């Protein structure tokens, strides 16, 4: 039996010494959709991400992935199930080349992560796939540059290529277009649309234009709770949502 | 690039082969032991990003264990070094499971505390010779065949060639293992953990286990260095397990270049040479080395080798443009 929802939370709650960062959230993400999580600053979006990927443990509530309870698993185990996240600040390995960045994600499946006696040439079998992935985000020609020297948008693209290397079932993108110029925003939007073809994406995004053009479904968080949920048009007309955004994003 | 590398390695190897004829052999052996120690430390700190302040425990601990076994049970030196290495690896495992979840300064402080425990065991145990340490450790017969204590006299110069080539072989083997580990699939993952640990976790790596393996490897090879040193100087003393040695190996690695293959070797040579050349100054040695360290850190932030590599890189970028 396959569940309709790839991820489902039940009364998910996270309390930080008296402060309710997330309280009683029932989030359901449909398989194959692009689902956006929006809300004003401090609404608990990133906390939800950290809970879903087990970087934080919930105070109470459950998380189901494909109908299986993963509430008590470790971050690496969740990653092995195919839930792969990106980070708010760009998550690349700055001193490895873009080629090595992607390869290090691919090499886990070789099962040689502990083999300290093998030469690096044992990784050559991954070269073709690595270049293919870099090509898919337009970074092939930068494969052997220094990652530190890449432009911001390129780093985010590299991060997506690295994430794709794991063939994730569910991709969690934490503000993929944050801090980007208009041109890069367009590129990343296209990229997200492309990679969403055969997988599910849950994203936190501040840029409402991006959300409007990408997301199938939107959940609005405020002060740790779900304020509204639905399609963009529906949610954006919701008076409570408009009020929540007054004076903040839509000032 | 690889042909340049091969030439460099060949030149260094040949230099190592003729070194006892150019310099005082025991001095070169001391250099090699500390260079191996610093390389082992660098595997952990430079490539995994964990700063250990307790590596003397492995270096000195192995020196005591090897010294004791070679002296009292008649173990041959190569087996002595092997047992010392394994014992240091086991100590590394124990240290590792206690510390590996800690980060940054907490990791450094706990490793220091555990190393101090080892220091007090060395001071108080009945078999370590207390303040005197273990003296008169025999150099023994390599494989029971070759007398490592034999001294040749060539052109009137006493040369402990058997011992030297034994030490050089141990160094080369240890260095090769570290070099291979750095460039292995495992080494790639270690670098990723050093660069961005949360990201490595999100890629599905069990970073604690990987770090633990790095710690055990590093401790084992630090043990190899200490065990070999006890055979060379026929002595295992409290100095070998003291926190000064833990500090010195950090100094060597930083001076030469953290996270570079040859940096720790260069750093170890610099520090040991300074100590020996300046020994006439007595306690002023510490001051001079301290001042050298300050100047080097200000002038070459990446360490000697790190700075050279950076220059080469910048030149390559300019060349491409």
Can you put this structure into words, describing what you see?
The complex is a heterodimer of chains A (251) and B (321). Chain A has 251 residues and is an alpha/beta fold. Chain A contains nine helices and eleven strands. In chain A, α3 (98-106) runs parallel beside α5 and α5 packs parallel to α6. Chain B has a domain at 25-243. Chain B has 14 helices and four strands. Chain B has helices at residues 2-22, 25-45, 56-72, 77-99, 104-124, 161-182, 185-195, 197-202, 207-233, 238-241, 243-256, 263-277, 284-299, 303-320; strands at residues 141-142, 146-147, 152-154, 157-159. In chain B, strands 1-2 form a two-stranded antiparallel ribbon. A two-stranded antiparallel ribbon of chain B has the order 3-4. In chain B, α7 (185-195) packs across α9. In chain B, 49% of the residues are buried. The model of chain B has no long low-confidence stretch (mean pLDDT 90).
Helix content, binned percent of chain B? over 70%
Biggest sheet details of chain A: 6 strands, mixed
- Quick one: overall form of chain A? globular
The CATH topology of the largest domain in chain A, please?
A: Rossmann fold
Q: Can you list the strand order of the major beta sheet of chain B?
A: 1-2
Distance between the termini of chain A: 47 Å
Helicity of chain A, in percent? 25-40%
The DSSP helix count of chain B reads: 14
| Biggest sheet features of chain B | 2 strands, antiparallel
* Total number of strands of chain A: 11
Provide the structure class of chain A. Answer: alpha/beta
Please provide the count of β strands of chain B.
Answer: 4
Shape of chain B: globular
Work out the radius of gyration of chain A: 19 Å
Provide the succession of SSEs of chain B: HHHHHEEEEHHHHHHHHH
**Uncertain regions spanning at least 5 consecutive residues of chain A:** none
Percent in strands of chain A = 15-25%
Structural class of chain B: mainly alpha
Helices and strands of chain A, in order, run as: EEEEHEEHEHHHEHEHEEHH
The CATH architecture of the largest domain in chain A: 3-Layer(aba) Sandwich
How much is the average pLDDT of chain A?
A: 86
């Amino acid at each position: 039996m396959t569940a309709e929802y790839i991820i489902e939370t039940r009364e998910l709650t996270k309390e930080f010494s008296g402060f309710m960062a997330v309280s009683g959230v029932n989030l359901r993400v449909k398989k194959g959709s692009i689902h956006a999580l929006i809300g004003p600053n401090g609404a608990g979006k990133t906390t939800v991400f950290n809970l879903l990927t087990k970087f934080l443990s919930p105070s109470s509530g459950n998380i189901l992935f494909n109908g299986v309870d993963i509430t008590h698993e470790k971050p690496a185990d969740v990653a092995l199930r195919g839930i792969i996240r990106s980070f708010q600040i760009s998550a690349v390995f700055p001193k490895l080349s873009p080629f090595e960045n992607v390869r290090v994600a691919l090499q886990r499946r070789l099962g040689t992560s502990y083999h300290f006696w093998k030469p690096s040439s044992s990784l050559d079998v991954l070269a073709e796939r690595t270049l293919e992935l870099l090509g898919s985000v337009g970074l092939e020609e930068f494969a052997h540059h220094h990652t530190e020297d890449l432009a911001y948008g390129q780093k985010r693209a590299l991060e997506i290529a690295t994430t794709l290397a794991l063939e994730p079932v569910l991709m969690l993108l934490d503000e993929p277009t944050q801090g980007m110029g208009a041109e890069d925003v367009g590129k990343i939007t296209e990229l997200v649309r492309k990679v969403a073809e055969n997988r599910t994406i849950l994203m936190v995004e501040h840029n409402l234009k991006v959300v409007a053009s990408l997301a199938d479904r939107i959940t609005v968080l405020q002060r740790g709770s779900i304020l509204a949920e639905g399609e963009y048009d529906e949610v954006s007309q919701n008076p409570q949502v408009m009020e929540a955004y007054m004076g903040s994003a839509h000032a | 690039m690889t042909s340049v590398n091969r030439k460099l390695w060949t030149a260094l190897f040949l230099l190592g082969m003729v070194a006892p004829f150019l310099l005082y052999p025991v001095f070169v052996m001391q250099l090699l032991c500390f260079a191996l120690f610093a390389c082992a430390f660098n595997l952990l700190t430079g490539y995994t990003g964990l700063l250990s302040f307790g590596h003397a425990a492995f270096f000195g601990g192995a020196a005591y264990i090897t010294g004791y076994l070679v002296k009292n049970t008649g173990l041959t030196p190569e087996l002595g070094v092997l047992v010392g290495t394994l014992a240091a690896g086991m100590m590394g495992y124990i240290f590792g499971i206690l510390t590996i979840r800690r980060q940054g300064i907490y990791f450094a402080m706990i490793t220091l505390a555990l190393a101090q425990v080892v220091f007090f065991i060395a001071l108080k145990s009945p078999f370590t010779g207390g303040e005197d340490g273990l003296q008169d450790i025999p150099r023994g017969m390599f494989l029971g065949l070759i007398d490592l204590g034999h001294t040749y006299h060539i052109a009137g110069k006493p040369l402990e060639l058997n011992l030297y080539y034994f030490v050089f072989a141990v160094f080369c083997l240890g260095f090769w293992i570290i070099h291979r580990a750095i460039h292995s699939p495992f080494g790639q993952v270690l670098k990723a953990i050093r660069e961005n640990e949360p990201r490595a976790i999100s890629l599905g790596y069990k970073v604690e286990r990987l770090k633990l393996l790095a710690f055990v490897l590093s401790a084992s090879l630090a043990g190899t260095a200490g065990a070999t040193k006890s055979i060379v100087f026929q002595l295992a003393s409290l100095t070998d397990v003291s926190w000064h040695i833990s500090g010195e190996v950090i100094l060597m690695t930083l001076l030469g270049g953290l996270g570079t293959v040859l940096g720790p070797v260069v750093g170890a040579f610099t520090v040991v040479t300074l100590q020996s050349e300046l020994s006439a100054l007595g306690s002023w040695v510490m001051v001079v080395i301290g001042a050298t360290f300050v100047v080097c850190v200000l002038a070459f932030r990446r360490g000697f080798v790190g700075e050279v590599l950076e220059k080469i890189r910048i030149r390559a970028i300019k060349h491409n443009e």
